[in-house]
Amino acid sequence: MEYETVIGLEVHVQLSTKSKLFCSCSTKFGAEPNGNTCPVCLGMPGVLPTLNGEVVRRAIMVGLATGCKIAPYSTFARKNYFYPDLPKGYQISQFDQPICEHGEIEINLNGAPKRIGITRIHMEEDSGKLIHGENLGNPDSSYVDLNRASVPLLEIVSEPDLRSAEETKKYVEKLKTILEYLDVSDCNMEEGSLRCDANVSIRPMGEKKLGTRSELKNMNSFRFLTRAIEYEVERQKEILESGGRVIQETRLYDPDRNVTQSMRGKEEAHDYRYFPEPDLTPIEPSNEMIEKIRAELPELPDAKKDRFVAQYGLPLYDAEVLTASRGVADYFESAAKNVKTPKLVSNWVMGDILRVINDNGLAAADCPIKPENLAEMIRLIEDNVISGKIAKTVFEEMEKTGKSPKAIVEEKGLVQITDTSAIEAEIDKVISANPSQLADYKAGKTKLLGFFVGQVMRAMKGKANPEMLNKLLEERLGKA
Ligand code: ADP
Ligand code: MG
Ligand code: ZN
After folding, report:
1. Whose alpha carbon is nearest atom 11 of ligand 1?
2. Residues 236 and 316 in one domain
3. pTM reported for the whole predicted model
4. What is the CATH number of the domain that holds 461?
5. Would the N or C end of the chain have less CB density within 10 A of its end CB?
6. What is the 215 CA–ligand 2 centroid distance (Å)?
């Protein structure tokens, strides 16, 4: 039997606002435990929440960027459950009237676009954190840190439109790119600012009805997300193939053992007794407000990608890679605007620049090779001052020293030789030193041209202009 995988995602994004969702406490990561708290986020009796308007603005930004309808009227609700990291005994969230609905995100599957539906986006507060005593030399105790309590989150829920772990990864990558462009979250997966719950089911190929899903909780890396889904799909296949039934449950992925394990079944599922939050008024954004936010949106990844193709004549593939990160796209543009051949900039950025920033875990803006310097190096190539090969040496020096390419070329005497007579003199030497290769070449082994090019290049320490060398050598061999 062939099966189809069906996945829907719930993504939680921590917003990088200065203050929390319902009080003015700081959201800064790494403060003293409980240093960022006040009676409101500590859930003291008698306090009242005050809605942070910036959170609403950012929720609308994300909704507009993903093509959602912005609700003219939406409300907060209390989601009731008991846990020591939730002092109020309920989480303020949104339930049946979320702020955004019915959007979509486009992903690229080997050149073919696919739209993934966004069911809803809603605002909610984060919980605190429990720190278990084993790590503090006190195994009998647990500690509560409420710095994260009431930090604003957006929950972004997708339709069950994803069909593989690979598609799911692309969807999360694209969503992350959009959030980074909007600058609403730092999207740091290791620190938990972006975490995913994946709902996974399978069904016989061709079947319309959805299979029973399991929900994989809180994955905060692309690798774990992919592996957990792949494991889960295989697990469900084995169950169905041996005549069993998948049960609806929440599972946790254990990266050390690469398995998912049951956390709780549907029977133990919470009844959250949702009810409207009485301490907050409904959110009713005016059309003016929504249109103002729309007008202030930055250029988004898809639009930037299309513009890169049109404006710089880049292949779609290049545009896609460059615009996957706003920082890299900005880097490319500040270098490309000052050269004749933007495609050369694209090649260097996609290759060596991405390598440098990825290897060192840097933002593009912090790359030791500044875009002005990359552009200057490319102009040296365009003006035939250096060859592409010498550029590799110049690049390495820039990476080490941060110096300008012109300074490096001068200091190291890397200027390429375009003096015809100097190149010809070396050609003559090489030809007379290799009579048997010359004979073979004349007998028809024209592939030996490469051998001669290599010999002359070596003698000239790689500095001969490659096009001139090729041309002169061919002429000379023809006459020899
Ligand atoms: P809950 O709040 O209980 O998790 P929702 O109805 O909000 O339930 O669904 C959450 C996510 O699960 C959505 O992303 C949805 O697309 C996805 N989903 C629902 N049913 C299935 C299914 N049978 N297989 C895969 N994903 C599903
Ligand atoms: Mg869920
Ligand atoms: Zn507070």
Report:
1. 8
2. no
3. 0.86
4. 1.10.10.410
5. N
6. 7
